[in-house]
């Protein structure tokens, strides 16, 4: 029988590969995902396009967006770019990009926008707040977007929060007065 993998010096049989696969699956099954006890600097050092938010030392892994979710974020980001053409220092970011709500809380909105007059609050790793955040509601995460994030963005002083609900085909525009 032809070998699927080769180890240094000798080929492995299909039975040996199956044994290694079972052992690997058992080993992976014993791993636990650490989500608590992280510092802000450890969170900010995460590389890659991960959808991970940070709240008081805990990592919160977000669901992978659907194609519709991403398409809606792209459309709204482009609308904001068109809206802000006259403000050459304004910026629009799509997830995954971090917004610091406080020194211990970071969110990754689907779309975030900042006017040019607030450019000093922007860094390459994250923004300190935003002028507008947009969240597309995920079916698996409805309450999180509609209640928890809504309250957090208000406390952080983000002046506008748009909730796009693909299920209800509705956009809610929330503004601090």
Report on the structure:
The protein is an alpha+beta fold and 177 residues long. The chain has 2 domains: 1-31; 63-175, tt1808, chain A (Alpha-Beta Complex), CATH 3.90.1570. Helix content is 29%, strand content 27%. It contains 4 helices and 12 strands; from the N terminus they run E-E-H-H-E-E-H-E-E-E-E-E-E-H-E-E. It has a 5-stranded mixed β-sheet. A 5-stranded mixed β-sheet has the order 5-8-10-11-12, with helices on both faces. A two-stranded antiparallel ribbon has the order 1-2. A hairpin with a 2-residue loop joins strand 6 and strand 7. The radius of gyration is 21 Å and the shape is elongated. It starts with 5 loop residues before the first strand and ends with a strand.
**Assigned CATH superfamily of the largest domain:** tt1808, chain A
The tally of strands reads 12
The name CATH uses for the topology of the largest domain is tt1808, chain A
- N-to-C SSE series? EEHHEEHEEEEEEHEE
Number of helices: 4
Strand content: 25-35%
Task: List low-confidence stretches.
Answer: 1-6
Taken together, the total number of domains comes to: 2
What is the name of the CATH class of the largest domain? Alpha Beta
Tell me the distance between the termini: 73 Å
Structural class: alpha+beta
Helix content class: 25-40%
Strand order of the largest sheet: 4-3-7-6-9
Q: Under the CATH scheme, which architecture of the largest domain would be assigned? A: Alpha-Beta Complex
- What shape does the CA trace take? elongated
Task: Specify Rg, calculated over alpha carbons.
Answer: 21 Å
Q: Sheet with the most strands?
A: 5 strands, mixed
